[in-house]
Design goal:
It is a single chain. With 481 residues, the chain is an alpha/beta fold. Helices cover 27% and strands 20% of the residues. It contains twelve helices and 19 strands. The protein has helices at residues 2-44, 81-94, 142-148, 150-156, 177-184, 202-207, 223-229, 233-239, 246-256, 277-280, 306-319, 356-359, and strands spanning 73-78, 101-106, 124-126, 165-170, 174-175, 194-196, 219-222, 261-263, 272-274, 290-291, 327-332, 337-342, 346-350, 366-368, 394-403, 408-415, 437-443, 455-459, 466-472. The chain has an eight-stranded mixed beta sheet with strand order 11-12-13-15-16-17-19-18. A seven-stranded mixed beta sheet has the order 3-2-1-4-7-6-8. Strands 5-10 form a two-stranded antiparallel sheet.
Length: 481
């Protein structure tokens, strides 16, 4: 009987403790809440609240307000009185008056022979005189600092309403604005983004940085990042006064803000020399955004100078930038020929069936930025030009482009020079020497989707001097080999 009584007493005690604990907990919670609201403001000035920080977007839209368009981009273009006259045609080839926003920055006010300023050029601005800066005597390369501070000079001009991106570029950069808009649409301008590319030349990246966006290729800064950079820009210049190149300075300042380079392969620094047709004939799937260094490379079209080549190339850009330089590969099985089409630029015929995995590697028609450089030299794989008739292409370049009825676009590619090789014996001795031009037909009402290839079909009658190629959407699972 005593054991039973002890067991019941223990159970009752446990219940009492549990109920008492709950009562004390609720009592404490109510008292603490009242004390906090009544006293914390007096004790600490304001109650403590944990809030996630938000980026200021005073001059920008919300990311989902509307799709990005050309008016949301502000170009910061750098030049000088010494280079502007010769490079002016490059800028005017892509600049769209009353559409594109931004300025070309000069080191000095333009003299009388520069005036009146062309209405088809970007409006000019003169950079602030950096000789007034206290850090000036310590600067290793004041010219590059002057160019970099164009970001600050642009911001101080105001007129940042609805700006989502600042895009830096040189006076010899060619920008494909429609493609730039499409690429930037993938990113939220209210976050910190630094978008560009590094050099094609391994040694340039090694000597400067593999994490650096090259200004000649151009790079984009989200407006929120620009807002964060402006207050600390001059102090960063002082911290890195020993850096020689603007792009290295820029990447270092952004790294100190915790921002790394986002690579987009459509930007092109072109740290190459000579004939870059091999590179342009096997462009990556990324939309073409920029080209640079036209004063260094050969004109991209034979028998044309630099300015004529750019104007010719922009004829295709005006019709469809999304397909510009996009490589399409197909085969003519009766002759065992491979066709490689670089839309708006070139066409190659190989007298052999060569898989796409091989033809997407650029022919090394160009040379490295430095002549005595040792391999590895490029940031991509290449193919050596060959005199083997089964590997050497017949080369054609765009001669004309026209838009026809029913959204049909016709590009004619003409042979520039004879190949001067025997037919490829291993694939049946089907010579393509008789072909003098290739006609490429495209029927499309929308831009090509970035990152997706297109396919094609070849129509050719033996002995004729023309081959016709029709571009089309690829069939699911279609093998290009």
């Amino acid at each position: 009987m005593q054991a039973k009584i002890g067991y019941l007493s223990l159970g009752a005690l446990c219940k009492f403790v549990a109920v008492s604990g709950l009562v004390l907990f609720f009592f404490y919670t109510i008292l603490y809440s009242q004390f906090y609201h009544q006293s914390s403001a007096g004790l600490f000035g304001a109650p403590f609240e944990l809030k996630w920080s938000t980026l200021s977007a005073t001059a920008s839209d919300s990311p989902m307000d509307s799709p990005i368009n050309i008016s949301h981009i502000r170009f910061v273009l750098v030049s000088s009185l010494r280079t502007w006259k010769s490079r002016k045609p490059y800028i005017e080839a892509w600049w769209r008056p009353n559409e594109t926003r931004g300025n070309i920055f000069l080191d000095l006010p333009p003299p009388q022979d520069f005036l009146p300023w062309s209405s088809v050029s970007p409006p000019y601005q003169v950079n602030e005189d950096i000789a007034k800066l206290t850090i000036y005597p310590k600067l290793v390369n004041p010219v590059q600092v002057r160019m970099y501070r164009s970001i600050l000079d642009t911001f101080r001009l105001g007129d940042n309403e609805n700006v989502r991106w600042y895009v830096m570029a040189d006076d010899d950069s060619l920008v494909f604005v429609d493609n730039l808009v499409e690429v930037l649409s993938k990113y939220d301008h209210n976050k910190y983004y630094y978008i560009g590319t590094n050099s094609e030349f391994v040694h340039s990246n090694y000597h400067f940085s593999f994490d650096m966006g090259y200004g000649g290729a151009g790079y984009a800064l989200s407006f929120s990042l620009v807002q964060a950079l402006i207050p600390v820009l001059d102090s960063c210049i002082e911290r890195y006064s020993y850096l020689y190149v603007m792009d290295h300075l820029s990447s270092s300042c952004l790294a100190d803000l915790g921002v790394a380079l986002t690579i987009e392969k459509g930007f092109h620094q072109i740290d190459l020399v000579g004939d870059i047709s091999g590179l342009l004939s096997s462009h990556k799937l990324s939309p073409l955004i920029t080209l640079h260094h036209f004063d260094i490379i050969n004109p991209i079209f034979p028998s044309k100078n630099w300015s004529e080549s750019i104007q010719h190339f922009m004829e295709a850009a005006k019709i469809d930038q999304s397909r510009l330089l996009q490589q399409t590969i197909c085969y003519h099985r009766p002759t065992n020929w491979s066709f490689s089409i670089s839309w708006g630029y070139s066409a190659h015929i190989y007298e052999n069936i060569i898989p796409r995995s091989v033809l997407t590697k650029p022919l090394e028609t160009f040379g490295p930025w430095k002549k005595k450089a040792r391999p590895p030299m490029y940031m991509f794989n290449t193919r050596w030009p060959s005199n083997d008739p089964c590997e050497a292409p017949h080369v054609f370049f765009m001669d004309s482009i026209k838009k026809m009825e029913n959204n049909l676009v016709l590009i004619t590619y003409n042979r520039t020079w004879p190949r001067n090789l025997k037919p490829c014996s291993s694939s049946g001795n089907h010579s393509a020497d008789s072909i003098t031009k290739i006609q490429v037909f495209l029927q499309a009402t929308i831009r090509k989707e970035a990152g997706r290839i297109e396919c094609c079909d070849v129509k050719y009658v033996g002995g004729m001097d023309v081959a016709n190629v029709k571009l089309r959407a690829c069939i699911n699972g279609e093998v290009i080999a």
